[in-house]
Amino acid sequence: MSGLNDPRVLFAAERTLFAWNRTGVSLMAFGFVIERFGLFLQISGEQEIKVFQRHISFIIGESFVLLAVFMAFFSIWQYSRVIESLRSDEVPDGYRPYAGVVINGIVGMLGLALSLYLARGFI
């Protein structure tokens, strides 16, 4: 329980949730670029090193995407804990505080789909 009787606590938690969302989407994009850069190196590189480079870029890129997926779901859990601790007078009447949870959940699921797509293209 926050004990502040202030709806700004809810909005601060929501801003934090969306900040984690932006960070996760950025990590996903960065991971995708790293993974695809390995494909570029495989196409344009020398025979001796291109297989090794492709494996390394896949592992690093996939790790960034999976880190973003973890962040999306973990931020949902954290936000839900904060929302449960708020009293009814800290949530404005008629306000639905779970829109951010849905959006982060969708981002997490899309990250899993991206991860599977990248893995399928690698195998």
Blueprint of the fold:
Elements: H1 8-44, H2 47-85, H3 99-122
What helical percentage do the residues reach?
A: over 70%
Note poorly predicted spans: none
Rg value: 19 Å
User: How large a portion of the residues is in β-strands, by DSSP E?
Assistant: under 5%
What are the secondary-structure elements, in order, as H or E?
HHH
- Give me the count of strands: 0
Cα(first) to Cα(last) distance is: 49 Å
User: Structural class of the helix and strand makeup?
Assistant: mainly alpha
- Major sheet: size, sense and barrel closure? none
Whole-number total of structural domains: 1
Q: Summarize model confidence as the mean pLDDT.
A: 86
